[in-house]
Every structure is written in C-alpha cells, then in structure tokens.
Fold these 3 entries.
Entry 1:
Amino acid sequence: MQLIRIIMVCALALVAPVALVNAAEDAPAVIPPVMAPATNAAPAEASEAPEGLPSAAQEIFKIGAFPVTNSMVVTWIVALGLIVFARVAMRKMQAVPSGMQNFWEWLVESLYDFLESIVGKDLVKKTFWFFATIFIFILFTNWFGLLPGVGTIGRGVATEHGFHVTEPFFRGGNADLNMTFAMASIFMILWLVWALRSNGIVGFVLHIFGPKGDSTGFIKYMMIVIFFLVGFLEMISIAFRPVSLSFRLYGNVFAGENLLEAMSNVVQHPAWAHAVFSVLLPIPFYFLELLVGLVQAFVFMLLTTVFTALICLHDEEHEKEHHH
C-alpha cells in the first residue's frame, strides 16, 4: 500500500502546471525596423541556422478551454507509465520478491532508509510519500525526455535539408518552468503544513524569530534583537526557496536538451554527413544527461528533505535520532 500511495501521488503533478500561465508565449514579438542587408546571402543563412529549444512549452491542442502543452503530455505519459508499472509489478506479491517487484521494493526501501536518516523515524512516516514520489517522478521524467522522438516528432515545415519540426508533440516535462515551479510550490505548501503541525503557530514563529542558545544579562536582550532581525532574512530565504528549487531543476534539464540539439546540428553539410553526425555526436552527451537526470532528481529531493528537517526537528530530537 505504501508503494501504491507513492506512485498514485504522481497524478498530483499532472494538473499543477495548468495553474501557471506563461504570458510570454502569447505575447507578440516586437521587431524594430532594420536596414536591408547589402546581399541576399545573410537572410538565407539565417533561415538555415538551427533554432534552439524554445524556453516555453508549446500548446499542441485544447480540451475545451483547457490548453494542453507538449510538456504536459510527457508528464501524463510518465505518471501513467509509473502507475501501470507499479500495479503490474505488485499485482502478485511474493514473500521472496523477484523481477519488477524486487526492483520496486529495493527502490522504496532504499529511499525510506535514506530519508529516515535525515528526518527521523517519526517524521519520515508523515513525509516519505511526498519525497519518494518527487524523486521517482523527476527521475523518470528527466530520462523520458532523452528518448528518441521527444522534440523530433511533431508538426513542421519541409526545407531543402529535410523536414524541420517547429511544434514538437513531446517536450521534456522538467524543461518547462511551469512544471518545476508547480512542484516547488506544492512542496512549500506541504512544508508549511508540516512545520505548523510539528511546532504550532507560536513555536513556528519562535523558531524563525526567537533567540537561540543560552545567554543571560545584557547579552540575552541583545541576542533577542539580533535574532529578531535575522528572522526577517530567514523569511526572505524561505520565500525564495520555490524560485531556487524550480530554476535549478529547469535550468539543468533545459540546458541539457539544448546541448543535445546543438550537438546534433554541428555538421550541416553535406546531407550524408549531417545524417551520420547528428546521430553520433550526441551519444556521449546522452550518457552525461542520464547522470544529470539522476543527480537533479536526488538534489531536489534532498533539498526539500533538509528544508523540512530544519523546521520540524528540534536539536534534542535530532541528537536522539542520531544516537539511535
């Protein structure tokens, strides 16, 4: 049941990006008037230059007034695949696991033990479902974006060098800032809930603005003023956490996909060389992006876990967990 709960929560990320509308996508580009070039070669070369991955996900169809982008389609596919994979793997559970069941149990148990070492035995029971889901979902979304066809299948135009895709049907889910910001925002809401449950309203305020350590006399009153001012800096830091979390993940995934596209377009002429090197040159970078996808999923999970532990665990509880 724990595993099913973990995978089912992937659906939480499916509709979250819809709440964030990218206004830049619909804004018309303002092109200042320029003088005509001296020759006709420059426009021809500019039209032949390969374009990079657009910063915003592209809308591919609508369900009524509901816009669906290519990155949303990928997140739906990944979430559905994880749910089906987990259901099939755990359909006939065995006392001695093997095959897919063995893989899922190893993954879940490893994550549980790791997270327990950070947040403790009590808090991990309340938060494990989210942190494990985030890691699994981000990891497989990152890796799905490396599959052939993502970014290369879609609507486009025919050119003298072949068919050029201008509106791909699939785009890496985490290469969309709406997606990463939605996950970071969901975490911050849960972080606030967990913090209030662990500390209460008064304890939450004291945790941020209250003085730390033991002091007496004049030093005590001076520390109260200092930590009260430091609390405002802490509030600014907390407010920027969803921004840093979302841009870190988005920036790494977006840069990786642009790198792969740039490597596939290094050689343009002749046509046979382009066909060969567009396949061979990106191969080493695919292995790099596999590692980046794993690292970024782990970093996102680790940072959210540490943020939660810092606000929910008190010094004495933390020391007690380490002694155990």
Entry 2:
Amino acid sequence: MSRRKWAVSLILMAILGGCGESPESDRAVEPSTPATTVPTTETAAASGDAVELKEFEVPSRSRPHDVAPAADGGVWYTAQGSGELGYLDVSTGKTEHLDLGEGSAPHGVIVAGDGAPWITDGGLNAIVRVDPATKQIRRFPLPEPGANLNTATFDKDGTLWFTGQAGVYGSVNPATGEVRSYPAPKGRGPYGIATAPDGTPWFSSLAGSYIARIDRATGKLEVFDVPTPGGGARRVWSDSSGRLWVAEWFAGKLARFDPATREWKEWALPGSNPQPYAVFVDDRDVVWLSDFGANALVRFDPETEEFRQFPHGSPNANVRQILGRPGEVWGAESGASRLVLARS
C-alpha cells in the first residue's frame, strides 16, 4: 500500500462532545507551591567562562519529563507522573499544575508562536494544546491507537509534526484540526524531532538508528543511518547552519550530520559509560547533552571539539530533554523531580 493511501486524515472540531475542547478544560489549577533552588557553579576551562547550574524543585509526584521556556519568562514542563502540565515561575520558584485529564501521561512540550504550550500525551494518545491565559484544553486525538507519542516541533508554516515510538510520525494543522499519521521506516523507534533553519522537520529513531528529513508537502522521508550500526539516535537538534546533531544513546557518542555534504562525524563522550540522552544547540551554536552515565549536563564546543561536564546536584537526575532561550539552557530532572537551569 502506498504511503499516500496509508496516511490517515482526521478533522477535529473544537466542540464539546467532539474532539475539540475537552471536558477537563475547566479543571482547577493546583495552588502555587514554592520550589527550592539549589545553586552550584562550575568553571568551564575550555572557554574560560563560568557556567552556573541552578535546580528548582517541583512537586515530588510530578516526575517532569520535558521542559519548554514560556513566552513570559517562566518555564512549562510535563508532569508525566501526575498527568499534568506544570509551570514554573522562575523569579519566585513557585509552581502551578493543570490536570490534563484522566489517563494523561504527557511526554513532550513545546511552545507555539502565540505562546501556547502544545503537549504530546501518550496516555491520551493525543496532541494537546493549552491556552496559557484561560487554561482551556483542546485535544487532537490520533487516528490510530497506541502511538506512544514522544516529541513535537513546528515547521516554518506553523504545522506541528510529532513522533510516536510505536512506529509513527505525523502532523497536526492547528488551523483546521487535521491530523495525519504515517508509518515510520523500520517500525518502532521515532523519538526526538526538531526543525532546521530552512523550516524542515527532522526526526530521530532510537530503535531504527537513523535520522529522517520530512517532506512537509507529502510526508515522505529521506532516511540517513547513523555511522555506528545500532547506535540509537535518541534525540536530534539543528545548529544555525542546518547541521544536525544527534545523541547516540547506545553508542555513547555525539554525531553530526551535514545535509549539504551528506557527511557524518562522531565524538565519543568522556567517561567509562556514557549514555547521551538529550541534545540541544544553544543560540551560540554550542551543543548541550544530558549524560545518564555521568549524571551530568555536558557541553560540547564544536570549534575546539572539547567536552565539559557539569554534574547534577541530585543523584540519578535523568534529564530526558533539553530546551533553552538566549543565555539559558533548561532540562527536566525526571529522576529527582527538579528542573535545572544552566546559565553561561
């Protein structure tokens, strides 16, 4: 069967009783609670500047998975353990939680141009939008069950693209509510996803050990295997020149792919048992990773090709995703119920 015929479209209308505004949209927001900050400072010898790590405690049951800087200076995070969307007021350390509904298990969160957080919710098997002002919830269910939703990104036209570890990827048109889903090559594995400067989305497959460029018009893919067979491409991010950086979980390596030359390059992370999970490129084109093996954030300078580790203040912090804004890099410590901020 062709990919075009396989693609499933579902138009979602924002009406009660349909697939739009959910009955949970008026659930109460959890009262704010103060978060403890744990500041530590490390000096990065490679570049000569200081990096401050600051940790913010969030409710212990929340088990934060992903983070996304909010438009107002705060930070959104998915509370996977409690089925909620969390918000951290960075200036006060207080948090608020919004119940996403029975069965929710939110994974990823990103912020749209209008400031609204969008969530990939594996428990609800739906993409979820939250109005940041009214806290109204709108769901965009997937046409097939059990996608095991992971991460999302917006392309240059404002279409949201998502991954599902069960072996799917797809899109949501926020204007029309149309949801499309496609089968991924090699089946299970689609995990991280990011948008390059030209507006093209790319995703990584953990089980498939590849990255793929998505044709926004057709949904078709161009697939590129990582250099180390079975390396495990968990997450992917683009730098300002369009080169793709990949965290190879099983190989313990950082990989870079240049779409212009189609050439790969790899670097082994320091330590005896590196486990790079998340990857993010900041506004200065510095690469950041989370390393489960070292229990640290890791910074890689592409100019000097040197790594620098910044250990977490909490044991088994398990940062599963990294995002940022100019001057700030944020991660969610799923194993410690904290958010971590790196400033440099």
Entry 3:
Amino acid sequence: MRHTKGPWKVYDYRDLNDAIWIGVDNPHFGKLAHAEVRYVCDEAKNIGDIEANAQLIASAPELLEVCKAVIPALISGKLDDRVRAQKLVNEVVTKAQGVSHE
C-alpha cells in the first residue's frame, strides 16, 4: 500500500472556504492538500468534531508507523520493549486526539 509520506498537517482554511485541509509541507511547492474536512449541512456544523476528525486523519501515517513498530515489542514479551511500545502508542494517540505537548 502506498500513501503520501508524513508527517501530515492540519491547515485551517475555514476563513476562505469553511474547510480544514490535511496535507504536507513541500519544500518546492509549499502546502499541498491531500484531503479536506468540512461540514455539508447545518446538522454537521460542529466545529469541534470537524477539527477532531481532521487531526485524526492527519495522524494516520504516524499511527501506522507506531503500529508497525509495536508488533515486534509485543511478540518479544520483554518488559523493556513493551514499556517503550506503550510510550510510543501513548504519544501517537495523544497527538491523534489533538492534544499537543509542544
């Protein structure tokens, strides 16, 4: 499976077209959008949900990489490996939920 290499970022363009874009920073072309999250009717206009959905989508490449990295730690059964794996999972889940510690 192929996908655009991360990190993906959330770009808020609600002031221009009521959309939040998910994309990458390209050194040659600037911000490149790969997906767009927007509301399509008044019932779906909960901005908090739209922002959360965009953050979750933008976290997909990192979530995939952490899942792949954690599998060997779970198989090994070693406590140190499992502790490192748990830390990686906690960090990427926190980011996917839109909580930043930067």
